[in-house]
């Protein structure tokens, strides 16, 4: 099993110490650095280039969203190895989630998550998938759902419209809506599920899941699952 190198950026000493102690008990996780504020955190992240950066959103000098944005910009311009960002926060509102993902965060969790769930989030993020705490996902998805006119019964397959906030996506999505099955897959992507987990949940093969994921990415003009999750969180749909 590959070792996952982690940096902790958290301003509360007890919380940071507790996280460090819990994570270092895992054989595949190594805490290689920590910081109590955004400025120090940015320097440590540049120096260590970890696999995962766990960043508190409420840092004293710059919030976790700003730190994430600056670090992701540094990665893009300097050509260093990629570091995944897991935002850790007490906040579960949709604006904070969308802001974090727009800044380049890969995963998002509330602080009171169990240590086992946090380890799941770290492993899922390390594998290249987006992990969103179910509490956050349920809150945001509930707020994002909007009623739309009924689709004519003559349709061969029930379609689900996605109304993107960004105007440039609206026309495309109206002409190329998601199917009901694709919406189910998309909701599980937002919840941070892997292809295998989605297949098990929906009783379909992993190959079929991959086909649906490719279709979703194409329809949402998304480059990857994280980008699709961001656009899903910005959107509403009918059940």
Based on Cα principal axes, name the global outline. globular
What oligomeric state do these chains adopt?
A: single chain
Number of strands: 7
Determine the mean pLDDT: 78
* Helix and strand pattern: EHEHEHEHEHHEHEHHHH
Can you give the helix content as a percent range? 40-55%
Spans of 5+ residues with little confidence (pLDDT < 50)?
143-166
Sequence of strands across the biggest β-sheet: 2-1-3-4-5
Q: Secondary-structure blueprint of this entry?
A:
Blueprint: E1 4-9, H1 13-23, E2 29-35, H2 38-48, E3 52-56, H3 64-78, E4 84-89, H4 94-102, E5 107-110, H5 115-126, H6 134-144, E6 159-160, H7 167-175, E7 178-179, H8 180-190, H9 195-202, H10 206-219, H11 225-233
Parallel strand pairs: 1-2, 1-3, 3-4, 4-5
Antiparallel strand pairs: 6-7
Helix pairs in contact: 2-3, 3-4, 4-11, 8-10, 8-11, 9-10
Question: Explain this structure to me?
Answer:
- There is one protein chain.
- By secondary structure, the chain is an alpha/beta fold.
- Helices cover 50% and strands 13% of the residues.
- It has eleven helices and seven strands.
- It has helices spanning 13-23, 38-48, 64-78, 94-102, 115-126, 134-144, 167-175, 180-190, 195-202, 206-219, 225-233; strands spanning 4-9, 29-35, 52-56, 84-89, 107-110, 159-160, 178-179.
- The strands form two sheets. A five-stranded parallel sheet has the order 2-1-3-4-5, sandwiched between helices. A two-stranded antiparallel sheet has the order 6-7.
- Helix 4 (94-102) links the parallel strand 4 and strand 5 (107-110).
- It is globular, with a radius of gyration of 19 Å.
- Mean pLDDT is 78; it is low at 143-166.
């Amino acid at each position: 099993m590959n070792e996952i190198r982690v940096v902790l950026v958290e301003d509360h000493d007890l919380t940071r110490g507790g996280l460090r102690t819990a994570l270092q008990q895992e054989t595949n996780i190594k805490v290689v650095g920590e910081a109590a504020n955004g400025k120090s955190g940015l320097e440590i992240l540049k120096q260590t280039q970890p696999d995962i950066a766990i960043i508190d959103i409420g840092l004293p000098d710059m919030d976790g969203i700003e730190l994430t944005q600056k670090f992701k910009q540094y990665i893009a311009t300097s050509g260093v190895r990629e570091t995944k960002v897991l935002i850790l926060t007490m906040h579960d509102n949709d604006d904070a989630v969308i802001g974090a993902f727009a800044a380049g965060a890969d995963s998002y969790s509330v602080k009171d998550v169990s240590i086992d769930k946090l380890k799941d989030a770290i492993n899922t993020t390390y594998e290249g998938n987006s992990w969103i705490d179910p509490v956050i996902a349920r809150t945001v998805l509930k707020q994002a759902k909007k009623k739309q006119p009924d689709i004519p019964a003559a349709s061969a397959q029930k379609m689900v419209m996605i109304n993107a906030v960004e105007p440039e996506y609206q026309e495309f999505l109206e002409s190329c809506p998601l199917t009901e099955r694709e919406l189910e897959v998309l909701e599980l992507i937002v919840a941070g599920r892997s292809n295998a987990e989605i297949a098990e949940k929906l009783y379909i093969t992993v190959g079929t899941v991959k086909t649906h994921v490719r279709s979703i990415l194409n329809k949402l003009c998304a480059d990857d699952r994280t980008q699709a999750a961001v656009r899903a969180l910005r959107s509403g749909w009918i059940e």
